[in-house]
Amino acid sequence: MSARWLWALLVVGCACESTPSDDVRDDASTPPVVRGCKRGVAYGHHSIADFAALGPAISWWYNWHHLPDDALRDGSYRAQGVEYVPMVWGRDFDADTHVREIPEGATTLLGFNEPNFASQANLSAADAAALWPEVERIADERGLLLVSPAVNYCGGDCQDTDPFRYLEEFFAACPDCRVDRIAIHVYVGCRPEGDDQARWLIDHVRRYEERFTQPIWLTEFACTDAANVDEQIAFLEDAVAFLESDPRIERYAWFSGRFEGIDHVDLLGADGELTALGRAYVEAPASPDCER
């Protein structure tokens, strides 16, 4: 799917590292930055300058915590019209503390982070279900929508390798639990045959849409095998075009601001400076209005 095609559609419907030379663009050919109502970022080390660089194009962000980054804990992100989304990361949480400390303005609470990974929240589906009433209590007392545990394929040292099976076992163990949205993580290769760099991501998301009825939050995604930043940009643009056009996707967040574990995924370079990939994310066509 072409990002240029989506830009034209939205206009009608609405009425890695870079070098300095990479930063030069023809302003006349660059569409205006639109704050995407779905678009967010998964990142936990923002400076004020970093947030100023990304803020004009995103509507939300999270950092795997129930409180914002230290530099933003004064609530300055709200002045930019960006929502902070808190998380209950794993088993070691105190519901009363979360109820007391979650910032004003939050509308949604994210559930456990990759509980099917031993290196992450490390919870069996049954354990996650047993803890969920306390997560619900936080959401209920603060009037928040509640998002499921965020699952991903696990290659080793796992509670469960299969994210679909994990969620199905979670719901079977917790049939009366409140889950308003489904959170997923998708990391795929981005060099399939054909023109659509995001085909594998699209296929993966469709499988969740077939199995679950709730709106989908894609809270982490990236290409894991991009040979260079241009391949990552091509993947990002095709993925965002799909995510913007799919009505089942309510929100999505790129991973990440800066991360050494996957090549060519950084949206940020120096403090407050967008990489070429970051500029592609900020400038990608987006809808400013969403229904929830």
From TrEMBL:
Family annotation (InterPro entries): ASL1 (IPR053183), Asl1_glyco_hydro_catalytic (IPR024655), GH (IPR017853)
Superkingdom, natural source: Bacteria
Location of the Asl1-like glycosyl hydrolase catalytic domain: 40-281
GO biological process: fungal-type cell wall polysaccharide metabolic process
PANTHER family in the record: ALKALI-SENSITIVE LINKAGE PROTEIN 1
Name used for this protein in its record: Putative secreted protein
The species this protein was found in: Sandaracinus amylolyticus
Taxonomic lineage from the root: Bacteria, Pseudomonadati, Myxococcota, Polyangia, Polyangiales
